[in-house]
User: Fold these one by one.
Assistant:
Number 1:
Amino acid sequence: MRIAIFSDTYSPQVNGVARTLTRLVSHLEKRNVEYQLFIPDQLEHTDPFKSNIHSFTSFPFFLYPECRVAWPNMLRLKKELLAFNPTVLHVTTPFNLGLAGVHLSKKYQIPLVGSYHTHFDHYLQYYKLTLLSDLMWSYLRWFYADCKKILVPSIETKHHLASKKFNHLDIWSRGVDCLQFSPSKKEGYLYDLYNIEQKFVLLYVGRMAPEKDLATMKKIMRQLPKEICENVHWIYVGDGPMLSEMKSEFQCDQVTFTGYLNGEALSALYALADLFIFPSQTETFGNVVLEALASGTPAIVADKGGVREIVAHEKTGMICKSGNAESFVQAITKLLSSPSQRLEMGYAARTYALSQSWDSIFDSLLSDYKKVSIGSFDKRSLA
């Protein structure tokens, strides 16, 4: 089996899609599956000597400047793809490289798999561009129309796309590295590093942007009861268009903004936190929530999007009414006031995360690739 992957985002870009694809590539190598990766050029490369990674000139995407949209050289792309002769072509983004992948799949009858990662319609609401919604859905239906499978990360996302008349939908869930994210990663030096003098640490990890519902997060911070607020240190990990706004509104010793973190620095903060707070309503899955659970940190999340499928209410965290700051405040207050319940939730969270193996999830994806490849070959043979 030979897999060609077309994506407009990849490491070192910091988002769930890029991180998932990086892990997928590692798994393909682990299973000795041949692959070719077609991605935007990066400011830095993880391994510039790999001959199976092809990058193309790119520019920032206006809704998400941290991600880049490629401008592929079609002659070069065609040459490299035909030389590889893939059995399956996987498009992961509906931008320029994804379009190139769809075009080449049709032209050379390469079985096509698509994956859907982002609720762009929700993003349009936050950026006041809802007039584009119908046009966007028409485009996405056309983009995914020839896919033998459209892979989505959650049941919520599957239902959402089915309601928009998408076909051939299947679940490609997400896993977590429970060695990288673990309660054992907690480091005492972080209290000094971030000047933490309060009893509790509340953590947010994600893009600092409107679509993460940081408007509700600001209300939560302001509405916490005084006796709770005085004992809380907030830590925000991430970057984005709202970072400067958040910094200007919360200029105090009880709030820390770290910018992007990864590796051991990120793992240590997950393990340090008493609770993970994530009000976003736009997630198709929510990798950061699963990473928090793996670290033994209960998560408080919204009741919209894929995150509600990760958290078991009152077992591994709390599910709150989306956009309702008071609902989050009540959950935070309840758990910070009950150390035993918080500890039990942390154990349950870790136990659940241990069952979410990346290996089994990626092996299932390889099985899907194989089914698509064999099914398409059989149809061509009968034609």
Number 2:
Amino acid sequence: MASSKPTAAGRVLAILDTFNDRHDSLSLSSIARRAGLTLPTAHRLVGELVEWGALHRQPDGEYAIGLKVLELGSLAGHRLRLRQLAHPYLHGLHHATRTNVHLSVSLERDILYLESMLAPDGAKVESRFGGRWPMHATATGRVLLAAAPPEQLDRVLQQPLTAYSAATETDPGRLRQLLAEVRQRGVAVAYDQIATGVIALAAPVTGPHGQAVAAIGITAPKDRFTSHQLIPPLTTTARRVSAALNGPDGPAPERQRAA
């Protein structure tokens, strides 16, 4: 019978996994607590990670992700190529709608932002390149979950689901209903899930066999925008990125007009 005791590699990965866009700088005690390690074990492993370059010790004594991880991340070429290919289309959508525009892919139970273009007076939702949010609470996450294999969907919905606002949907049964609606409509529309007063929409970017490989999302103040205004330019952009991704004859980017 296999032991459930964490391996050395598992403990190192648990340390790295304690960092995210909301916890980009952590004390040693916080790292130990979040990784489920004793303080002496965390101290030893963090020291080795600092020496190798995966972590960086800041002047205030806290730790942050080091440049070695960034260097390794740059080798994820296929996702960075997707970001490069999509960029002019996303810029057109951003220019046309004057909203926050995102390109997301799935990463375990989260979405990972490959691109994030923020409007000066746009919705106040924390997002940046490389940032993560749980899939259940985002429109791009729901688009990707709706297209996910059943086992991935079950893994996501069987875990405790965090609420980020009073309106965040955390009931697995209700989320399954919402995902069925996303499959039917081809877009996700959500309100107030991470921040109050925000409408979020997303549409899939599809690969050569029609599978969703990424999602393009918009977040905007819901008192200034409606889904009817934003869905047409959003879905047009998603189709154009999909076409460009799947062959050399995809349409060239062009300036769009919001409805």
Number 3:
Amino acid sequence: MTAKLTRALAAAGRLWLLALLVGAWELAARSAADDFFPPPSKIVKAMHEVWFSGPAGQAFLTDEAFDDFGPSLAHLFTGWAIASVAGVVLGLLIGRSAIAGAVLEPLLQFGRSIPPPTLIPFLIAVLELGTELQVTTIVYGVIWPVLLNTIDGVRSVDRLQLETAKVFGITGALRLRRVILPSAAPKIFAGLRVSLGFALILMVISELVGSTTGIGVRLTTAQQSFHMDQMWGGIVLLGVLGCLFNLVFHLVEHRVLAWHAGLRRNTG
């Protein structure tokens, strides 16, 4: 009961803080009367007019919402899914091989150090503008947290667990599924969570170049036409999406790794 009350009070405190910040923003923006910094009320109105004033049959989404959200989210989740699968698979292979880890370590550190946006000029030259360019940019940028966390998770598997599994004849794919993956899962999920945030950032960056649809294009168009309320609406929308993604992922992670949290409580 005490834990539930503490969580409820913490949630209420966060809501009050958010309301206070929004109120301060509203007052400051109205006092400044600067077109480049519209108040939240004007931003919300612009978001409603552009994206959320559609018919009930379309969940109140406008045609512009489908044009902006559809391509952006498709690119984001496609790139994130590809990077997640590739990162986990390669991480398992490299993490279980000391030779591969020693040989590839410098290459991995070099690759992760290259900022993904700097590759966009090269990708424009070798790839078609649009989905191919955007998904490739996202994949390259978000694979590193998944890959490196998976390698670290696999290497940190308790050797006693591996030896015990060997004694009981648990080898190969069965050992991977029953011992290695469960032990490495917390670090793998940590990498997936970080990479999802990176995917949202790279989604916008990749849409600023060579794209005709998407939230990033909406931001650029609004800025060029001096519709600052719509531009800020896009920024706020991205922030809301990031919070929603993090919340949903946290719920999934909590459900999947419930056994791990229970184990820590029992051994703590």
Number 4:
Amino acid sequence: MSLSHFRITRFQFARDRVIGDSQVRADDVNIAALELVSETGEVGLGFVQTLFTPLPDQTEIETVFENEVWPALKGHKAIALVHRVNRPRGGNQRAYSLPFHEAVQVALWDLAAKEAGLPLHVLLGSRRNRVGAYASGLDFHLDDEAFVSLFSHAASLGYSAFKIKVGHPDFDRDLRRLALLKTCVPAGSKIMIDPNEAWTSKEALVKLVAIRDAGHDLLWVEDPILRHDYEGLRTLRHAVTWTQINSGEYLDLEGKRLLLEAHAADVLNVHGQVTDVMRIGWLAAELGIPVSIGNTFLEVGVHMAAALPEVEWLEYSFQNFDHLVDQPIEIRNGYAYAPDRPGHGLVLSEKARTEWIRPKRLARSELGAPPENPRLPGKSR
């Protein structure tokens, strides 16, 4: 089943709530579906996403993909491409003009698993079909009422682990949010915090002591300081013995390897690039370092989570993307379930293709009402 052609469908719509952290905020969605089509008509699906600026018009996305990416894919079998490694030399070591990297990996693996007639997690070597999911609010810009509503709703759905955004210039606000969280989730819940690199190494130590002394037990603190400060992360890891340092989200594959080599994280955080995640996940397994799966588009990361031996948690952030596919990933009673359908199990919805396609770039004021989010009540937005 060699690759014969591709399709790109551009989407742009409003979010149902403002998401963000101590560094960024976003209230719209800018994505494009990438479909790689084989000679027999099988389709591999991935998504191109930009968080802070709209994608160009669909015709421009197609042109860039055809010129920069398609020549290396056309005529090949997906299963022959998923493990291909290029020599990182000179000008050949460069990013695409648009963020196709993850979309291509996900689409190729989807098609490769379909060629093999297997669910993706099985092709990757899974021994299970579910993984613990923690509720993440992307909640930094929510007011207290919406914050409480969101996490109360998550608790009602059976989640037992929760991550909130911290790193506010007013540290008392961080402490207040942690106290508020205690009022709306069950006693004994696992709690994580994420400053998104808001702190320095010594500042992080002082604040983590203050959080502990205020009576808050943390499963981990995620990205407390700058991503490349391996010495600071390692120092913090040894100084803070009562919780774990989770890092790696912002690092590429090489950066994650250096992080592991520096012994600078208790937990390695990875996202949605299937090949990259499996490569670094195997290395982490050799070193006995746990791996967490951060936000992946439409939770496709459940497949890698089920396949890697060191993964206990997958992040779920209640984003309004489910309308894009026929069957979203099932999340029930605090677990995400990997589909048993061939491939990753996500198929672009024809309704989304016709009703939500936006071939031309729109101004934010033109987006209209957001698509429905069936997993989140309105008062949590």
